[in-house]
Amino acid sequence: MERTFAVVQWIEGEDSGKFSDVKTDAIRNYDDSKMDQDGSPISPYSAFIEWRHGKRRKGGWPHYKGDVLFVSANRFENTSKLNSLLEEVERPQLTKRVSVAPSKYRDDSDDSTDIEAEPKKVMKSKVRADPAEDFLKTYGNGQLHPVDNHDLRRTLVELKQENKDLKEENTKWKDMVLQGPTPDKSPSSRVSTATSASPTPSQTVSQSSKVEIHPGTGVMIDKLAWAYALISNSATVFVRQLLTAVFPLEILMVSNLRGTKRSGGDPRLPLDKNKLDAIYSATLERFPGTPLSSIGSAVNAKITELRSKSKTSTPHSRAVRLIDIKS
Predict the structure, then answer these.
(1) Where is the composition biased (Low complexity) (predicted)?
(2) What's the confidence (pLDDT) of residue 263?
């Protein structure tokens, strides 16, 4: 029997730390093989989950990260598990009462009593949190890393050197284009599928200069492109930056999000699913709560913009523009 109900604990969003009863279809890319026969996770299972609270937004439900704690085929078992988890959290912890000597046996003139009572006051006082740590937890995805000025300077020098190398390669490519056009290959030999990759100047950069945009996806881009994406102030800008860094321009010009065919136009090839999933996951990690439809709209809007610029440019300027975009 299909297990369609789940108990999750939110990691992000307004309900962070709380438990919820959801359906498994609200869990993005839900994999039932990660749960055992009793409905418990075989290993810690985190995923992006639709937060269906209040009125549904125009772009769809927001997605937040959460832990899948239990799945079941019927709502009764799911509700029972949820109630048991809530009882464990709300159950008060029993503490031993501290014995206090009666006041009539105390000697007010004895200074040792005041000295011993002082540490108790310190223990009862609540330690105030560091405002800097609260700020980093709120705006830095809750990850605190020790800052090493030496490492920061070294990283900055490496990025500057990579930027210099890329500019030199870009200049060489521009000179090659200006010297004379090379014979174009046929569309069939140039692009077989949307997943095929064409040689780009960035491929001359060593593998150590690349970074994985989301753990476990294997999708790598240049560190410099990743640095530009991280300074994006919105999910839309972040998606547009990643799209041109992950896919070659030739692929984007003949593809769209799902490979649909427009009326009166040529059929479009679908973008590589693994690379798209990596962009979706990286965006949800960077901007929690972003509707999936907004990410898809940003992808198609960027592709449409690239096609529009290509149609309005001359063949010579189009080749130079292609080099500019890659750089």
Answers:
(1) 186-209
(2) 62
Using alpha carbons, select from 14, 39, 1, 9 the residue that is nearest to residue 27.
Answer: 9
Q: Average pLDDT of 235-247? A: 93
CA-CA distance, 73 to 276, in Å (whole number)? 31
- Convert the pLDDT of each residue in 50-94 to its tens digit: 887 777 777 788 888 999 999 998 888 888 888 888 888 776 655
Checking if the pLDDT of 135 tops 60, the result is no
Same domain, 207 and 314: yes
Same domain, 166 and 235: yes
Question: Is residue 213 a contact partner of residue 221, using CB atoms and an 8 Å limit?
Answer: yes
How, if at all, do strands 255-256 and 269-270 pair?
parallel
Q: Is residue 300 within 8 Å of 257, Cβ to Cβ?
A: yes
The pTM for the full model equals 0.47
Q: Which residue has 């239990």 as its token pair?
A: 70
Q: Are residues 31 and 160 in the same domain?
A: no
Task: Tell whether 28 is covered by a domain.
Answer: yes
Q: Are residues 85 and 153 in the same domain?
A: no
Q: How many domains are there within the chain?
A: 2
> Half-sphere exposure (CA, 13 Å, Cβ side) for 50?
21
